Amino acid sequence: MQLREMDSYRGAGPGGITQVCGAVGSIDTRSDRNGDDPPRRAAAQTAPDGRHPARKLGLTLALTVLLFVCVELALQVRSHIRYGQSVFNALTAETRYVEHPETGLQTLRPDHVFRGNQVEIRTNSLGLRSEPITVDKPPATVRIAVVGASTVMGAYAATNEETFSYRLEALLDAGDKTTDFQVINAGIAGYDLHDQRRMIEKLILPFDVDLIVIYPGFNDFAAYCRNDAATATKAMERVGLPLLQSPEWLLSVELVRKNTVSLRTAPESGATYIPAHGIDLSPYRAKLDGLLAAAKATGARVVIATNARAYRPEQALDEQLRLSETARYYTPCFDISGLHTLYDRHNREIAAAAARHEVSLVPLGERIPGGRSYFVDASHFSSGGEQMAAEQLHRHFIDHALIARD
Question: For an engineered disulfide with 241, which of 98, 236, 388, 404 has Cβ 3.0 to 4.6 Å away?
Answer without folding.
Answer: 236
